[in-house]
Design brief:
By secondary structure, the protein is of the alpha/beta class. The protein contains 16 helices and 15 strands.
Length: 392
């Protein structure tokens, strides 16, 4: 039977409310927000946010059939989310929670000051298997879930609820992928031990795609804290051996493909051996041998006019999943992921910079990979433009 949907984009969704401040020059935050002071603002920008929106809409713009699966409240914010998402796919899987309101963020973006985000997780914290339309899932080729570290129902109890969701999706013959998020390090999720969570969840994940900063917090908090204390960009401080060590551990815990996103450096991929890779249903139409036991680095592309990096990781995930769903090679998958991350940088929001599949293919012919001088002598370039492989 031909799948009715290419992918189900599930997980965290919210409404982003961004007031337009009329302040033109840099001011201390304490000067702007004072007790009793009226701060005049312009019209607010309303947009959907979270992994379901950012990754799902990018997938739709790339020409895939997308069904959205999350939870919104029976309130005005929920209506706005549903109406906006309906422009880019099937919203029948958006569950209406009668007890808890929709998730929203108020984003305070002042000139020359890092954004301040006021976030209400809302019904994202209560999303469970009971909220999932399994008929829609069974009609898809891939079930993708994003941001479990900021969805309490999916990180609590060592991830048992998420493990059950992914296990059921797999039992329906659907491949699975998971993207993570960086929680507040001082929050419940940020302070918990993630070892049991990873042990419970990863055996049900085909494609696992956290950022290097996220996965370091989850696997080695002391090392994460040390790097965060340095006066430099986090990804520029992480040695290539660290990627290799972490990916090896994650594969041993049960997932089959690990892709670690590294911002402006690109992304690292490590895959399981043939007996595991051959079980990924989504790779049945490709030569799965080319995916087995690989260790690749895909550099990002030189970007001169960066508008914003909001949602760049989500866009990269959309590029990765699009390449896999279209049967591209593992090397092309990394190129596509990095190209979508590049496109994201062209706009202030998370999705306006994303082009079509054909536009992405054309753009790839003109982009220049960034230097990879952080790779050691065990790495060498291969015929695919910009891709490097380690064959220790």
């Amino acid at each position: 039977m031909t799948a009715k949907n290419d992918v189900v984009a599930a997980g965290h969704v919210c409404l982003d409310i961004t007031p337009r401040f009329q302040i033109q020059s840099r001011q201390d935050i304490g000067e702007v927000f004072q007790s009793g002071k009226l701060v005049k603002v312009g019209d607010a920008v309303l947009s959907t946010g979270g992994a379901v929106s950012n990754t799902g809409i990018a997938l739709s713009k790339l020409g895939l059939k997308v069904s959205y699966m999350s939870s919104v409240g029976q309130d005005g914010f929920g209506e706005i989310i549903i109406n906006k998402m309906a422009e880019y796919g099937n919203v029948d899987g958006l569950f209406r929670n009668k007890e808890v309101g929709s998730s929203y963020s108020v984003i305070l973006a002042l000139p020359a000051i890092d954004r301040i985000i006021l976030h209400n997780p809302g019904c994202n914290d209560h999303f469970t298997a009971e909220n999932i339309n399994w008929e829609i899932v069974s009609s898809a080729r891939l079930f993708h879930l994003g941001y479990p570290p900021i969805m309490r129902s999916l990180y609590a109890d060592d991830g048992i609820e998420l493990a059950n969701i992914l296990s059921k999706a797999r039992s329906l013959g659907v491949s699975t992928s998971v993207d993570m998020a960086l929680p507040d390090p001082d929050s419940e999720a940020g302070m918990m031990s993630w070892k049991e969570w990873l042990t419970n969840v990863l055996p049900h994940v085909d494609f696992f795609m956290p950022s290097i900063e996220e996965v370091l917090l989850f696997t080695n908090r002391n090392r994460w804290q040390k790097l965060r204390s340095e006066n430099a960009d986090f990804v520029d401080l992480v040695r290539i051996a660290t990627y290799q060590e972490i990916a090896t551990t994650l594969l041993e815990l049960g997932c089959r493909v690990v892709i670690l996103k590294a911002g402006q450096r690109g992304m690292f991929l490590k895959t399981a051996k043939m007996d595991e890779i051959s079980q990924i249903k989504l790779l049945e139409q490709t030569d799965s041998r080319t995916w087995s036991d690989r260790e690749l680095w895909g550099p990002s592309y030189v970007a001169d006019n960066i508008q914003s990096a909001t949602g760049a990781g989500d866009s990269a995930v959309a590029g990765i999943l699009t390449a896999i769903l279209r049967g591209l090679t593992v090397e092309e998958t990394l190129q596509f992921g990095n190209c979508l991350g590049y496109q994201n940088l062209r706009a202030l929001d998370a999705v306006s910079g994303i082009g079509t599949y054909d536009e992405t293919e054309s753009l790839l012919e003109s982009l220049t990979p960034v230097p990879v001088d952080f790779l050691d002598k065990s790495w060498s370039p291969i015929s695919s433009t910009g891709i490097w492989e380690c064959k220790n």
